[in-house]
Amino acid sequence: MGTLPGKDPGMDIGKPENYRAAAKAAGDAFLAAGVPEASLQAVRLMCHVAGMTPAMWLVRREERISDAEWDEFAALAKRRLSREPLQYILGEQEFMGLPFTVTPDVLIPRQDTEHAVTEALAWCDGKKVLDMCTGSGCIAVSIAKLGKPASVDAADISRAALSVASANAMRNGVNVRFLESDMFEKITDVYDVIISNPPYIPPEQLRELEPEVKDYEPRLALYGGEDGLDYYRVLVAEGAKHLQSARNGETGGILIVEIGYDQGISVPALFREAGYAGVTVKKDYAGLDRVVIGHL
User: Fold this and answer.
1) 166: domain range?
2) Spatial distance between the Cα atoms of 53 and 286, rounded to a whole number of angstroms
3) I want to staple 263 with a disulfide (CB 3.0 to 4.6 A). Which of 88, 107, 143, 259 is the partner?
4) Domain stop point among 37, 52, 82
5) Three-state SS annotation for the chain
């Protein structure tokens, strides 16, 4: 029979009587371990095990928990106590209101990235779009699902990530062409819009991240070089070769990138140095610099 750590050292908790008590035990253990949103995450785990929606939880939480459910719940709760991200445990994360499968092969989609997608949706109707460093495919799939692009391509160096992204495209019923490529190495087409959430975390910030990120999410999707700008340098230089040129008085292709909160000066400078015009910085809901846009 599964157990969970109790409030007192060495005092493990056995099977509680009902779902609510089980979630409470896990929530207390999460709180003691420093897990964020401890009570909420415990309830989400319990709902996952019992096959409940949040609405069903309110009705059924006093029901008796079975031995099999408790064993599964205790095992998953222990994984969360080790600070494994809840999204990897559940295998899913919502993004732009859409469901996405996530595994340790991909970065977990975040609300910050939704700002970049929202900006892209304003430009992508009838356009040819490339999502570089696609990871889970959340950007490419969201644009294909919520916008009206002529086509969407998505590239990543990781074959494992592309497998997850392809499954997410199928899950959401959209057509995206996935390309295995080290940045633009195998990209041959020209696009109207290129969007990217590249790795942008420098080493000193990487060391300070929460255990959920630094110990579990793929380093390949996080580390942006010594100053965090390595991938932006490639994006502005190589991206210009794969964007439509300005002609007949019309602006050329558009490059849209997510940035770290402290890169609102350095990344736009790279855009301007590479010859992009109309360079703007968009803020997230917290008022932090989050997206940079420029065009040829």
Assistant:
1) 92-295
2) 29
3) 259
4) 82
5) CCCEECCCCCCEECCCCEHHHHHHHHHHHHHHHCCCCHHHHHHHHHHHHHCCCHHHHHHHCCCECCHHHHHHHHHHHHHHHCCCCHHHHHCEEEECCEEEECCCCCCCCCHHHHHHHHHHHCCCCCCEEEEECCCCCHHHHHHHHHCCCCEEEEEECCHHHHHHHHHHHHHCCCCCEEEECCCCCCCCCCECEEEECCCCECHHHHCCCCHHHHCCCCHHHCECCCCCCHHHHHHHHHHHHCECCCECCECCCEEEEECCCCCCCHHHHHHHHCCCEEEEEEECCCCCEEEEEEEC
Give which of 89, 73, 84 is closest to 35, Cα–Cα: 84
- List the structure tokens of 199: 């790795």
Distance between alpha carbon 91 and the CA centroid of its chain, in Å? Answer: 13
Specify whether the CB–CB gap between 120 and 129 falls below 8 A.
yes
Q: What is the pLDDT along the chain (296 residues), one digit of tens a residue?
A: 566 665 544 446 678 889 999 999 999 999 999 999 999 999 999 999 999 999 999 999 999 999 999 999 999 999 999 999 999 999 999 999 999 999 999 999 999 999 999 999 999 999 999 999 999 999 999 999 999 999 999 999 999 999 999 999 999 999 999 999 999 999 999 999 999 999 999 999 988 999 999 999 999 999 999 999 999 999 999 999 999 998 887 899 999 999 999 999 999 999 999 999 999 999 999 999 999 999 99
**What is the C-alpha to C-alpha distance for residues 134 and 132, in angstroms, rounded to an integer?**
5
CATH number where 17 lies: 1.10.8
